[in-house]
Amino acid sequence: MPDIAYDVLTVEAVPDYIRSRPALAARIEQITDVREVGDGNLNLVFVVSGKDGTSAPAGLVLKQSLPYVRADPSWPMAPERNHAEARALRVHGSLAADLVPALYDADPDRFVLAVEDLSDHRVWRAALVDGERHDEAAAALGRYVARTAFGTSAFGLASEPQKRLLAATVNPALCQITELLLFTAPYTPGAPGHDPVARGTDLAAAITAYVTDPDVVTAIGAAKWAFMTRAEALIHGDLHTGSVMVRPATAKAEESTRAFDSEFAFYGPVGFDLGVLWANLLLAAARSAALGDTDNLRWRLAQPAAAWNAFTETFRALWPGRVAPATFTEGVLEGFLDQVRRDALAAAAAEAARRVVGPYPVADLETLPRPERAQAGRAVLAACRYLLLDPGAARAPVETLFDRVGDRL
Ligand code: ADP
Ligand code: MG
Ligand code: MG
Ligand code: MG
Q: According to its UniProt record, which protein family does this protein belong to (predicted)?
């Protein structure tokens, strides 16, 4: 394992660490349990439970970045991604506090942040794989994208503070990962991880046909250019269903949806967040189709429009508060929303296809039996081709778009 210039947390070291951080010591007086739960690819995550000064239950989560990828220590990765996540949580928390985990502490020297314990939530992807329906989640995420996008864009912020925030949140290392994994490697035969045969011989031909189609490659290249240049707002940057926690309403608590793991946040195209979300709902729908679960299939195909409608409603509701209303006319708003929709289409295709091509497949497809998995993979690629290239898709309302996607599953 590479040498690390700062102390790495362990289950044993967490209690002393918490006592050394005043913001955390004040929150949790008596620690009863520490668990390492990181199931992600990148970082260490500890859930800490105990009691506060009044003996009431208390908890928090610590997330530490290492100078390499947790799942692959031979892949170096700057730990400053932890700073990016802390910045995004601070900004997004000020705009959409109920839709992200609360940030309790950020320790820049050891690349640790402390956030609200969401152990009473589930990761949405896992809930989807189990066939659960969380009816409010998609709309909540649409509101999250709208509030954070408007509030960090030049519509919602005056020019100078907007540019200062943009400059303070550049995130080159993580942007480069997205550029590679979504927009480059899948279309580069011989790139690391580009191995259609490894995805199964019953899927390999469909993958090769898709990733070598010149029209697909050009459309993906255009989406990559948009990702690299359209600095519209401080977006989440990795809003797949594994970056969302959901909790249904109970007698004790309200329904809750939270976007977490925002270490990829940067000033990018707002449509990218919506598109990544749509892609993962499409993957979940492909799972239902493969399993013959028509009720869940219908529900899942309706969720992208639920997210989109909540996004546009919320964005329109914020619009009267824009900076410089004289020049930012209704026509500018409509042009922006249309651009977001088109960016979302292309981002959705890029994200869904890369999960089929590999090398970072998702549980939605991987846990299917072999023949169904290949069938679902081929169906997803057909849907991606439609989203990316069909002239009808570029104009269709989002509801219609995902009806047409459903025809291909
Ligand atoms: P990574 O960047 O390594 O993907 P994540 O932030 O996605 O790390 O966290 C990895 C896992 O840790 C999540 O999938 C979830 O199971 C758990 N986790 C993360 N944050 C919290 C939290 N605030 N409360 C409870 N569990 C969490
Ligand atoms: Mg994660
Ligand atoms: Mg992450
Ligand atoms: Mg069908």
A: Belongs to the methylthioribose kinase family.
**CATH 3.30.200.20-classified regions of the chain:** 14-115
From the list 409, 366, 379, 384, the residue with the least C-alpha distance to 200 is 366
3-class SS of residue 120 = coil
From the CA of 406, the nearest ligand is: 4
Counting residues of the chain whose pLDDT is more than 90, the rounded percentage is: 89
CA of 29 to the centre of ligand 1 (A): 23
Q: Give the Å distance between the CA of 83 and the centre of ligand 1.
A: 16
Looking at residue 360, its pLDDT comes to: 79
The CATH number for 14-115, chosen from 3.30.420.10, 1.20.1050.10, 3.30.200.20, 3.40.30.10, is: 3.30.200.20
Average pLDDT, integer, range 96-101: 98
Task: Check if the interface score ipTM surpasses 0.85.
Answer: yes
Look at residue 1 in the predicted model and tell me its pLDDT.
Answer: 59
Label residue 191 by pLDDT band (50, 70, 90).
confident
Residue partners of 125: CB distance under 8 A and separation at least 6: 240, 241, 242, 244, 280, 284, 362, 363, 364
- Give the pLDDT of residue 2: 66
> Would you say the C-alpha torsion 342, 346, 351, 352 has a positive or negative sign?
positive
Give the C-alpha separation, 130 to 127, whole Å.
5
**Ranges of CATH 3.90.1200.10 domains, the chain:** 122-407
Ligand 1 atom having least distance to the Cα of 243? 7
Q: DSSP for 26-60, please give it.
A: TT-SEEEEEEE---SSS-EEEEEEEE-TTS-EEEE
According to CATH, what is the number of the domain 122-407? 3.90.1200.10
